[in-house]
Amino acid sequence: MTDLLPSPSIARHLLDWAHAAEGAYSPATERAYQADFNAFRAWCSLAGRAPLPAQPETVAAYLRAESAAGKAVATLRRRAATIARLHRAAGLPSPCSSEPVRLALRALARERGTQQRQASPLTLKDAHKIEANVLTDDARLKDIRDVALMLVGKDLLARASELVSLTVDAVSFDAEDGTAHAALRRHKTSTEAQECLIGPDAVAALQRWLQVAGIASGALFRSITKSGKPTKLPLSTRDVTRILKSLARRARLDASRVSSHSMRVGTAVDCVAANIDAASIMQAGGWTSVRMVARYTSRLAAKRGAIARLHKLAG
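The structure corresponding to this sequence follows.
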């Protein structure tokens, strides 16, 4: 097995870039870059090819191999973007701008299709059903936390990473109307915090959680010991998916495609169902393109589309 290392000058470029980029990316983005490039480097080592600088044919062959291994088209594009970024950081031309790589990505997209596996939406109707099934008279501290996390996450259209990084200091409560504002860091779109509204129902659930858990500072949503006591450790992003799947199962909802993204998708669906304009939805969710909102709500759009209206008129 061969592991072809970059030259000292390339390594020096990468080190300088790493110092300059310190703090510019979220920890999750940094981990994704590292994982993507490690996978590419491991493949190159087995294939006896240089990962940096990489030839366009090498990248194209790697993408085809990853596709054959079952990787989604979105994953292939992200890995190509990581390879391109690392080459630019090393002061090298990107092999991903070449025709062989572009053609490989286009061919794989046509072969596999570009439709990503969509997370099931957790709508307001689902949230109310979950509350009714979970917040019973004998609800545990964990139940109170989990429902608060779900409701706050829905109102904030938050990604899991954004939700678990929230602290008590980032939330300000308004006693007059029962709402709250959270300074949310949209890692994918901005380095600055976005002021986001939390509605009265979610605020009531959040305040109940903070009161019974005795939390006055630090992480907003944190782990709980087996004996039922809150710790100081924030939940992980994996915890969020696990919690939402558990809530869905307890409410007898289909949990197979529930993920941490289900809160974000569900609120987008709720907004479209309430005829809220796309620009307002984009602002609330921190989206810069209407394309993502359209993808999340495509099923609802179909139910309201021409064929649905035709059948309704015919019926």
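The chain has two domains: 8-112, 124-303.
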